[in-house]
């Protein structure tokens, strides 16, 4: 709270409540009922992200509530925390911490191994309690360990408004709430506005939601509207959607009641959720008939929850949370055009392979912000060969003369990140580096860091996947994929991959260029005089590449 910048992730209204572990601003306290206000003081969905290379991490905090657990939900979910470690290839690992629930709750994470790339440690994400408020919290590491908070992520969030199931009942630990599972899957900020017994599309909350510039609004309130008259459900859904649409053109996803676990044996339970979903569906069809744009719908059948998905008749177990998250994720990926494939090159991830040189996330946000400010005529996307080719704030630069003399006058903006692979660029494209402006040209040169990690076919398929994502975001642009540049002792392998890349580009309607041929000798080997290390071109090498790229 004394960092000098916001460090709580997934929190709305940061300017008002950014130094408390709460979810709603004080100004609405008199507009909502006492129960909902009390629930808004719980830290569900909030997280703290940081970097550390500590071999041991300890978290200490106190909570506002007297009870650590509930009769149907364990203390680890109600009042516990959850720590996830993101390695330098962007893959998450769950950290188990021994814990003690006393006046001060303590979680201890020990025996943390080193990352395979460097000694700068990992990114961590600490998820806070679902059904308790946090009074104060400390993260402890050994004095000689590195520790750095990650500032509030500068991206439009997904906003989820719902019931106790959205808040997290009855997950065994905070990160297993379905909204948090969804957040980790799509890796966007996600503001959890789930409130037990509430979440009824109340006007004060809808007005608050309308203050948030989101990339998607998810309304999952039907489970707490089953008591309402049928026409009131329809009116509330329509009014909520129209209220958002009066101010935003952001997509809205409506979620049906997932059913009750005893729906197959209890007539009243069955009739309640069937009737509620009937009116929810009627509201959606009415909105579509009125041509309200950007409204989507997720049915009970798509949720596909089973009797074993719940702890009691309605509240989700970890199994149910995962099932709901999977179903919502599938729909979200369709709405936001962020598909994933089955191989690593088609599954977007972050990376942090050389933090001693630069911080990847920090550079991503810098490139995104400056692109939106500059509105460039052309962008070039790539790895270190692009990153260090002028137009950057890094100490290490190559080819600065050719960039300043030719690329810069041609209007190019540099979207290169050192040590990137195809899947890392896919993450960057999904996270807005090509949004907020229209460009005439997009040049892509990526894939060399996948060699040795993936087959030729996997690299080519990843490029196809990535190029389609680029086209989705910049449909007016001329999109060119460059052949992978040759590298020492891999000249024939690169040549074979480039033949396949060219074939793919021709089939998919993208331009293909292979300027790397200019870096080869007549015997097919690289010209060592054009490289710094057999991989990265020097100034002479860039001079051999630039004219072909600009042709």
Detailed description of the structure:
The protein has 551 residues and is of the alpha/beta class. The chain has 3 domains: 1-152, Jelly Rolls (Sandwich), CATH 2.60.120; 155-336, 3-Layer(aba) Sandwich (Rossmann fold); 344-550, 3-Layer(aba) Sandwich (Rossmann fold). The protein is 33% helix and 17% strand. It is built from 17 helices and 20 strands. It has helices at residues 14-17, 34-40, 75-78, 164-167, 178-186, 203-209, 230-245, 267-289, 300-303, 318-336, 360-374, 384-387, 400-407, 422-430, 456-473, 491-508, 539-550; strands spanning 8-9, 47-52, 57-63, 82-86, 92-95, 98-100, 105-109, 122-127, 134-140, 147-149, 158-162, 190-194, 216-220, 252-255, 295-298, 378-382, 412-416, 441-445, 478-482, 511-513. Strands 1, 2, 4, 5, 8 and 10 form a 6-stranded antiparallel sheet that branches. A 5-stranded parallel sheet has the order 12-11-13-14-15, with helices on both faces. Strands 17-16-18-19-20 form a 5-stranded parallel sheet. β19 (478-482), α16 and β20 (511-513) form a beta-alpha-beta unit. α7 packs parallel to α8 and α14 packs parallel to α15. It is globular.
């Amino acid at each position: 709270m004394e960092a000098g910048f916001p460090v709580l992730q997934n929190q709305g209204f940061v300017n008002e409540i950014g130094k408390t572990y709460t979810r709603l601003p004080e100004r609405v306290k008199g507009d909502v009922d006492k129960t909902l206000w009390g629930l808004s003081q719980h830290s569900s969905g909030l997280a703290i992200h940081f970097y550390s290379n500590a071999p041991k991490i300890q978290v200490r905090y106190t909570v506002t509530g007297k009870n650590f657990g509930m009769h149907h939900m364990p203390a680890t979910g109600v009042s516990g925390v959850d720590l996830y470690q993101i390695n330098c290839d962007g893959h998450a690992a769950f950290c188990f911490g021994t814990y003690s629930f006393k006046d001060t709750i303590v979680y201890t994470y020990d025996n943390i191994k080193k990352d395979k790339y460097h000694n700068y440690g990992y990114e961590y994400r600490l998820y806070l309690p679902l059904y308790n408020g946090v009074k104060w919290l400390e993260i402890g590491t050994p004095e000689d360990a590195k520790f750095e908070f990650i500032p509030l992520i500068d991206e439009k969030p997904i906003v989820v408004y719902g019931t106790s199931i959205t808040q997290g009942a009855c997950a065994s630990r905070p990160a297993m709430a379905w909204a948090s599972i969804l957040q980790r899957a799509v890796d966007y900020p996600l503001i959890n506005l789930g409130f037990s017994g509430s979440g009824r599309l109340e006007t004060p909350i809808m007005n608050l939601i309308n203050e948030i510039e989101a990339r998607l609004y998810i309304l999952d309130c039907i489970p707490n509207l089953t008591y309402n008259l049928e026409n009131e459900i329809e009116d509330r859904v329509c009014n909520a959607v129209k209220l958002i649409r009066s101010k935003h053109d952001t997509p809205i996803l409506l979620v049906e009641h997932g059913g009750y676990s005893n729906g197959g044996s209890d007539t009243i339970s069955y009739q309640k959720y069937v009737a509620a979903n009937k009116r929810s569906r009627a509201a959606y069809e009415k909105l579509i008939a009125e041509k309200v744009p950007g409204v989507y719908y997720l049915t009970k059948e798509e949720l596909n929850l089973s009797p074993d998905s719940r702890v009691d008749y309605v509240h989700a177990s970890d199994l149910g949370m995962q099932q709901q998250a999977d179903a919502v994720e599938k729909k979200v990926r369709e709405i936001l055009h962020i598909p994933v494939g089955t191989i690593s090159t088609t599954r977007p991830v972050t990376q942090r392979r050389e933090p001693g040189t630069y911080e990847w996330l920090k550079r991503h946000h810098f490139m995104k912000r400056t692109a939106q400010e500059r509105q460039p005529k052309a962008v070039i996307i790539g790895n270190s060969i692009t990153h260090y080719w002028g137009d950057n704030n890094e100490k290490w630069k190559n080819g600065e003369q050719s960039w300043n003399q030719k690329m810069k006058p041609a209007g190019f903006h540099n979207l290169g990140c050192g040590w990137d692979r195809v899947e890392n660029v896919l993450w960057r494209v999904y996270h807005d580096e090509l949004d907020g402006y229209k460009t005439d040209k997009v040049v892509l040169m990526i894939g060399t860091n996948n060699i040795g990690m993936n087959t030729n076919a996997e690299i080519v398929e990843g490029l196809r996947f990535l190029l389609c994502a680029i086209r989705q975001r910049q449909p007016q642009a001329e999109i060119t994929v460059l052949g992978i540049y040759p590298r020492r002792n891999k000249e024939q392998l690169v040549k074979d991959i480039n033949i396949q890349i060219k074939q793919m580009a021709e089939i998919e309607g993208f331009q293909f260029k292979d300027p790397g041929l200019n870096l080869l000798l007549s015997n097919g080997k690289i010209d060592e005089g054009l490289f710094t290390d057999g991989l990265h071109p020097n100034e002479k090498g860039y001079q051999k590449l630039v004219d072909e790229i600009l042709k």
